[in-house]
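Aim 2 progress update. The chain analyzed this quarter is reproduced below.
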Amino acid sequence: MALSALSPAELDRALESAPPGRLAQTLSRLTALFLEQAPRLGEPHIAVFDEAILRLSRDIEFSARVELAERLARVEKAPPQVVKDLAFDDRIEVSGPVLEHSPCLSHAALLQIASTKGPPQMLAISRRSSVHERVSDVLILRGDREVALSLAANPGAKLSERGCTKLARRAAADSALAEALVARAGFPAELARELAEVARQRAEQALAQEFGSAENVGEAVEAATFRAAQSAGQGSPADDFADALLYVSRLSKSERLDERNIAGWARAGRMDRAIAGLAYIARIPVQAVARAIMRRTMNPC
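Predicted structure tokens:
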């Protein structure tokens, strides 16, 4: 008799007769049977498999639960009770695959897990192809830096206005998070401008600590950038910093990168090197420095 035709009582007897030492093998075969038939099964038949797999999966060893989670994580018509049970497992090896990939988890379940579980589970949720903004809000509130970075870099994670504001506040002291937010499509323009200005300030502070004063360097960079922007009419005078960053990196390794280099490049109009030098010394993304300087020079008042 096919499993999908069993009554609840017959299912109970079938599971009770399974040899205790072979539960994992029985579960593996049952899961394989489900995966084979899943595209053709209706909800009543999926419910039967759901009940059977759920009962077996709660009594098997850890490695078998990990395998089950990996096999069901991306299945569109996976047994819903089983997927939810795996998602709530405290061991990330079990819960991780379904939290990150399963299309069968409801927003309510994800919200509950984000509200109660630890950083590994929150990180897995933040990597989903689609994250509801209510879930994102909880992850931003409870999550650590890695979770915040993951959300910021995930285009499928929807961010509420409140969530964007909280991330921007955290990004004021985190250059990597600031760069991810500034580069994110749809991120509020005003918050992006504020982050760019913070990046500029951090660069100047780093220069001051490194060389005693960043005032002369900052003035030279601004003046040269303003002249370049006026002559170009629009846009950044240096859109590609790859060569400049390589040059600056080599100069730094030979211990010949200092304030005079940056000021000299600025006076000579080599804004790619001047901006790359600022970014390298300040340890912040070069594009963030470029955007901050362009904003300041194009709006000097």
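The first helix runs from residue 8 to 16. The mean pLDDT is 79. These observations will guide the mutagenesis experiments scheduled for the next reporting period.
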